[in-house]
Amino acid sequence: MSDFFVRVEGLTYRYTNEEVLKNISFSVEKGKVLSILGPNGSGKSTLLKIIVGILRDYSGSVKILDKEVKEYSIKHLAMIASYIPQEFSPVFDLKNFTIVSFGRNPHLSLFRGLNKRDYEIIEASMKSTEVYEFRERRCSTLSGGEKQRVIIAKSLAQEGQLLLLDEFTTHLDPGHSQKLLDLTLNLIKTNNLTAIMVAHDVNQAIKVSSEIMFLKDGKIISKGHPEEVITEELLEKVYGVKSKIIKNPINGKPLVIFH
Ligand SMILES: Nc1ncnc2c1ncn2[C@@H]1O[C@H](COP(=O)(O)OP(=O)(O)OP(=O)(O)O)[C@@H](O)[C@H]1O
Q1: N or C: which terminal CB in the chain sees fewer CB atoms within 10 Å?
Q2: Is 44's C-beta closer than 6 angstroms to any atom of ligand 1?
Q3: 6 CA distance to ligand 1 centroid (A)?
Q4: Whose CA is nearest to atom 11 of ligand 1?
Q5: E strands within the chain?
Q6: Is the CB of 21 within 6 Å of ligand 1?
Q7: pLDDT confidence of 133, banded at 50, 70, 90?
Q8: 9 and 122 co-located in one domain
Q9: Which segments does the entry list as coiled coil (predicted)?
Q10: Could you report the per-residue pLDDT of 51-62, keeping only the tens digit for each?
Q11: How far apart (Å, rounded) are the C-alpha atoms in residues 69 and 128?
């Protein structure tokens, strides 16, 4: 078995006639955090949806743990990968405990409902994301940031080893965004998870990522360690705007200031 958790080779995807992803190849090692950046419409969310098995009519190869995504059952894939969307709005206004308990569904069967261990996992997930106090409340009564923490608790209860995060802090204020990001990174480290994050905040991506990958018009423009790939030329090529890169006085990493 290879050291790669996710391996994409020659991936092409089209919703209609036009190709949204054009023959892209990359891989993510176990325990690493890859951030995917790029302009609106460059194919970032589409890529995540393919990796998590929502879009299966792709051509090329997308493997998780050396097995083609298309060949996994939805249930088996859900045991491995947790998808956290930009915004979480459940169809029914359920209690938060119930929502988090759905994370255990891939592990249940017709003959096995929630057992003591499942309840322990749900409780621990809610405690580590600091939403246990909201367990009896309905989801609609929570703030945006609290809701996102509930969906992360559900993902943790799922016990997947791969987190796929789609701009999951976009709607949060800087305080909540920072706190949720720190919490998620801590969980990734503690549980040795692998993560792929779609992001727009370049500086946040520099701070949290093992690697950054830039997509534009469905193609990979650059991929590598943040310090290596982030240049003023590259940012202008990707986003069409000028920037200045200075040294971040807090962590010594590159800090991008857009003109
Ligand atoms: N269901 C769909 N049917 C047809 N076209 C779609 C569909 N979903 C996305 N697209 C198109 O595919 C392209 C890539 O969309 P995608 O959502 O992957 O981009 P993105 O990089 O995540 O964008 P953003 O930064 O705006 O979230 C866009 O041109 C979009 O209009």
Answers
A1: N
A2: yes
A3: 22
A4: 41
A5: 4-14, 19-29, 33-37, 59-64, 67-68, 81-84, 162-166, 194-198, 211-216, 219-224, 243-247, 254-258
A6: no
A7: very high
A8: no
A9: none
A10: 999 999 999 999
A11: 30
Going by alpha carbons, the residue nearest to atom 17 of ligand 1 is 45
Same domain? 143 vs 250? no
Q: What angle do CA 121, 127, 130 make, to 5 degrees?
A: 145
Q: How many domains does the chain have?
A: 2
For atom 5 of ligand 1, which residue has the closest CA? 15
CA 36 / ligand 1 centre spacing (Å):
14
When the pLDDT of each residue in the chain is averaged and rounded to a whole number, the result is 91
- Note the pTM of the prediction, 2 decimals: 0.90
Contact 199, 37 (CB under 8 A): yes
Q: Which tokens go with 118?
A: 């499942």
Give residue 176's identity as a one-letter amino acid code.
H
The verdict on the CB of residue 46 being under 6 Å from ligand 1 is: yes
pLDDT of residue 108: 84
Q: Is residue 135 part of a domain?
A: yes
Looking at the structure, do residues 63 and 170 belong to the same domain, yes or no? Answer: yes
Same domain flag for 44 and 165: yes
Ligand 1 pocket test, candidate residues 17, 24, 46, most atoms within 8 A of CB: 46
Q: At what angle do helices 174-190 and 144-158 cross, to 10 degrees?
A: 10
Lowest mean pLDDT among 52-61, 166-175, 221-230, 236-245: 166-175
pLDDT in tens, 145-202: 888 889 888 988 998 899 999 988 877 778 878 887 888 888 889 888 999 999 999 9
Closest ligand 1 atom to residue 45 Cα is 22
